[in-house]
Amino acid sequence: MATRPQTGSDYLASLDDGRVVVHDGERVARVAEHPAFAGTASTIASLYDALHEEGSDALLAPIGEAPGGDGVTHAFWTVPRSHDDLRAQREAIRAWQARTHGWLGRTPEFMACIFTSMAAHAPFFGRFERNVRAALERDQRAVTHYAQALVNPPVDRELPPDEVGDVFVHVVDETDEGVVLRGAKAVVTGAATAQRLFVSHFGGEVQTDAFAIAASVAVGSPGVRVYTRGTPFRPDQPLARRFQEHDALVVFDDVLVPWDDVLIRDAETMLAFNRGAVGWNARLAFQAATRLEAKLERIAGLAVRAAEIMGTDQRRGTQAALGELIAFRHTVAGLRDAMIEQAAASGESILPGVDAAMAFSALAPDAYSRMRVSLETTLSSALAHLPVPLDALGSPDVAPIEPLLRGSGGADARERLEVVGELWDAIGTGFGARHELYERSYWGQPERTHVGILGLARADGRVARWQARRHS
Hints:
alpha+beta, 4-hydroxybutyryl-coa dehydratase, domain 1, Butyryl-CoA Dehydrogenase, subunit A, domain 2, Butyryl-CoA Dehydrogenase, subunit A, domain 3, 3 domains, 6-stranded mixed β-sheet, 4-stranded mixed β-sheet, 15 helices, 14% strand, HpaB/PvcC/4-BUDH_C, FAD, HpaB/PvcC/4-BUDH
C-alpha cells in the first residue's frame, strides 16, 4: 500500500488513459503534450513533486488513527478534528498556492472539501456509507486530482432539473455492475487535466430519484467526452502559459459507473446534501479564501511595483487604490481565519465557521471585479504600453530602443516588461477576463448567496433577536 501520494510523473502518466478530449473541435491525442493543456499539466505535476521534496512536512499530515498513521497525504485531504488541524490545513494550502500564486482554481487539494466532509458524516449516506469512507481513503492516499461536475448547462433554467432529461445528467439504467449515466455537465473547470470527476447536482433541486446521483467517475471511463474551447494566448503571457484552465462541457454517453463509486442515489439525500447537511460548502470557502489570498498577494506586489515603475507611487489617488487592494487581501485572509476561530463540531470533524464562510462568498465576487477596474484605472497607459514582447529584448531591431523602454524607480526595460506584462495577463488579456468571470461565478448566482445568508439568520433566531432590541 502506498505511503506517500503520487509523484508528478505518476500524474502525467495517468492522463494517458484513453480519455476523449475535444479541444476547439479537434480530438486531442495526448493531453499532457497538447499546447492548450501542457503548461497546466506540468504545473500540477510540480505540485505533486513538492510533496516529495525535502522540507515538505508542512504540506503533509498522517493518514489513519494509528500513531504516526499508515502513510501521509496533503493535509487538506484529512478530516480536521481541532482548530489546530484547520490551521495546519491552512498552511498546507498556502504552501501549494504560493507556487501557483492562486491562479489555478482547481489544484489537487480543492475537492478534498467534499470528500472529507462526506466521510465525517458517513452514516448520513445510508447504504453508501462504506463507499464514502472508501473513496476518501483511496483519494487521500493518491491526492487524486478532481474536477467537479455540478453545474447543469444553461438551458431551461425555469424548469426543475428533472424536466430537462434531454440535456441534464440522469440515471437511465441500473445493472448489477452499477448505474448508467446520460446527459451533460457544464463549466467543469479543469476536466481535461483531472483524473476523476465528482458528478452531482447543485443549483436546481432534484425531486426524483432518476436525477439523484452523486458519484466519482474516472475521466477515462468509456462514454465520457470532454469538450473545451481555447482562450488563445501568446508565448509571452506568463500566467496563461502556466495556469490556463479550460471550463469544459462534459458529456456522459451511457457511462457505466460501478456501484462502489456511487455516493448518493435518492432525492431526499441529494436535497439535504446540497442544503448543507455535511458542511462541504464551508470547507470549500476555507480553501477558496486561502487560494484567493495568494492571488491577491501576487497582484498587490506587482501593482505596487508597477506604480513605482510609472513614477506615480507618491500620488495620493494611486496610494489609495493600492491600499484598497491590500485591504481586500486582508479581508479575505481575515474571513478565512475567522472560519477557524468560529469552527464548531460537525459529525466526526470540526467545520469552518459558516458565518465567515458565507460572508466571504458574498464579498469576493464583487470585490474582485472592483479590484480589476481599479487597477485598470490606476495603471491605465502602463498596461497599454507594451510595445515589444519580453523575448524580443536584445534583438537587432529592439536593442537600440531598449533605453527608451525603461521605467522609473531604477527599473530597466526587462523589469518593466516583466512586471507590467504579468499584470496585463492578470487583468487585461483573455486569461485575465476569464478569471474575473471565474471569481464572479465561483459561488453561482450571487443573489443565491445573499438569500442564503438571510435565511440562515432567520432560521437560527438572530433576526428575531435583532428586532427585539427595538423594544428593550
